[in-house]
Amino acid sequence: LIVEDDDSVRMFVSRALERAGHQIHVAADGAQGLEMIRAADGGYDLVVSDIRMPEMDGIGMALSAANSFPGLRILLMTGYADQRERADELNGVIVDVVNKPFSLAEIRGRVDAALAVEITRAA
After folding, report:
1. Which residues, at least 6 apart from 44, have a Cβ–Cβ distance to it below 8 Å?
2. What is the DSSP letter of 20?
3. How far apart are alpha carbons 10 and 69 in whole angstroms?
4. Termini Cα distance of the chain
5. Which residues fall within 8 angstroms of residue 7, CB to CB, at 6 or more apart?
6. What's the CA gap between 66 and 59, in Å, rounded?
7. By the 8 A CB rule, do 78 and 109 touch?
8. Are 34 and 58 contacting, i.e. CB atoms less than 8 angstroms apart?
9. CB under 8 Å, gap of 24 or more: what pairs does 9-17 form?
10. pTM for the whole thing?
11. How far apart are CA 78 and CA 58, in angstroms?
12. From its phi and psi, is residue 43 left (phi > 0), alpha (psi between -120 and 50) or beta?
C-alpha cells in the first residue's frame, strides 16, 4: 500500500514498484490509508507512506495501524529533516525512513529491504 498525497510521487513509486513485480494499492492520505489497512485486516505486506500529509499524517497512521496490526511493516518517506526526527521516535513501529528525493533504484532497494525485515512485535 502506498500512502502519498502528492500525485506525482504516488505515481512514481507505484510504477517503480509495479515494474519490480509488486501488487500495488494507493491511498491519497493517512486517513484513507488507515481505512484501507483496516478494511484489509492489516493484510498488506508493506505500507509505504509519506509522513507529511493533510488530514492524518503518516506518523499518526503508522501508530494507529501498528496498534491494531503489530506485525505490519511500515516504511515512511519524507523530504523534511524535522519530520525525519519525529520518525526516529517510532523505533519498533516502522522499519525505516526513506529521504526524498530518491531514485527509482533506491526506492526499490529500500522496499526490498523492508520486506526482508523479520517482524517480531508482540500482538
Report:
1. 1, 25, 37, 72
2. T
3. 24
4. 21
5. none
6. 10
7. no
8. no
9. 9/50, 9/77, 9/100, 12/104, 13/48, 13/77, 13/107, 16/104, 16/107, 16/108, 17/48, 17/107, 17/108, 17/111
10. 0.92
11. 10
12. alpha
User: What pLDDT tens digit does each residue of the chain (123 aa) get?
Assistant: 999 999 999 999 999 999 999 999 999 999 999 999 999 999 999 999 999 999 899 999 999 999 999 989 999 999 988 888 888 778 788 999 999 999 999 999 999 999 998 776 544
In terms of C-beta density within 10 A (0-12 exposed, 13-18 middle, 19 or more buried), how is residue 87 classed?
buried
Q: In this structure, what C-alpha cell is assigned to residue 99?
A: 529521504
User: Which three cell numbers mark 37?
Assistant: 489497512
